[in-house]
Design a protein that fits this description.
It contains four helices and seven strands; from the N terminus they run H-E-E-H-E-E-H-E-E-E-H. The protein is an alpha+beta fold and 123 residues long. The strands form two sheets. It has a four-stranded antiparallel beta sheet with strand order 1-7-6-5, with helices on one face.
């Protein structure tokens, strides 16, 4: 089972030795049930996980539906196989990653009315 999980992750996530990345960049947001119902009426296939305190919606799905999967902003990009991962296509600096993160967040907020937040630690 462990090897199967590793193989699946290796298919979706880029090797940081080959393509610079910090793994999953954004946290999955938890929204109120009413917000989820509102979105489900518009997007019937929206994936969600019902929790005691709300509904968790995969950030990768929100980013993908916002048109960012595989798109670049300068030398930084959203990975083409996993929208949660921001990658350095070569020569990107921290400011490039932050700018891309901000643009992705802005687009998701505008399209869905949901704020997503970075999961990574900025140092």
């Amino acid at each position: 089972k462990r090897q199967t999980l590793i193989d699946i992750r290796n298919q979706k996530l880029p090797d940081p030795k080959v393509l610079g990345n910090a793994g999953s960049f954004f946290m999955n947001p938890v929204v109120e049930y009413s917000k989820y119902e509102e979105l489900k009426n518009i997007y019937p296939d929206i994936p969600a996980y019902i929790l005691e305190n709300g509904v968790k919606i995969p950030a990768g799905w929100l980013i993908d539906q916002s048109g960012w999967k595989g798109r670049a902003l300068g030398k930084a990009a959203v990975h083409d196989k996993q929208a949660l991962v921001l990658v350095n296509r070569g020569g990107a600096e921290a400011a490039d990653i932050v700018r891309l993160s901000d643009e992705v967040r802005k687009t998701v907020r505008k399209k869905f009315g949901i704020d997503i937040h970075p999961e990574v630690n900025f140092i």
